[in-house]
Amino acid sequence: MRRLRAALTAIALSAIALGAPALGSAEPARAVKVTVLSTMLAGNPGRGIGEWGFAALIEADGRRLLFDAGERPDTVLRNAGELGIDLSDVTDLVITHNHPDHTGGLVTLRRELARTNARALARAHVARGIFDRRPRADGSDDNGLLPLKAAYEALDGQFVEHAGPAQLLPGVWLTGPVPRQHAERNWSGSGRVQTAGGLVEDTIAEDASVIIDTADGLIVVSGCGHAGIINTIEYARKVVRAAPVLAAIGGFHLLAANDATLEWTGNKLNAYGLRYLLGAHCTGLEAVYRLRTMLGLTRQTAVVAAVGSSFTSGTGISALILAG
Question: Distance between CA atoms of 26 and 75, rounded to whole angstroms?
Fold first, then answer.
């Protein structure tokens, strides 16, 4: 296992150095499960707490990857404990973008889990640009990851920055920064980011997703979807495999989308054959229900995600009591 992870890290670092996708020939993942560990709703009584944030555990053929870290320092740790999920053997995680509702648990998770396993969450995969400064008018910085960076590294945590797509596990890919082919404006418009040319609008250019390649199609796992769900899917089909989309899981920032945007998004998702939607965090309740109707999905195949809800390949969505 250590040799495998070392080899995968070497692939990722090569992609950074070459500025090119770390495309490989791995077979599609066979047994996949994605379990939500942080979102606004709790799915079952006494099994987790909700917050404005997102995190999920990705399991693919016996290998495990944490996806984002929630907002509050201890939410993911507590929720995993209440769900009976041991994260101490998970060595790698992905941080999708710099916002605090996806980074807040990073240091606590690393510190507490390292008491059991020194390698627990010791490697954090991020996309290029995530550490760029986001200056506020008062001189402070709006980048939610910067205050945690030194503390994580002081705990022997390592950030691996990806300039493009990279295979993290067999059949499991990080997109890296996603090109914005379509005008899916899924950000506030008020933020600013420091570039070599000065301050510009912060489009959260580092926003990345994880793509899992399976025999039945691609599974898209998104933290906030600032790059846009359609931009992300089209990029995934370009750099991973031009396959149908089996499932979309996580936050897709459609909570404020108007009717025209939802209709356009639904038509695109229908064209890509989306079969399951587990909409969490900033997807928005109304957006999930509207997309369910537009795509001809059901209460079993398109639901609002809750803490503990999951998607399993070959089985589908376990929505738990609240959304079931």
Answer: 34
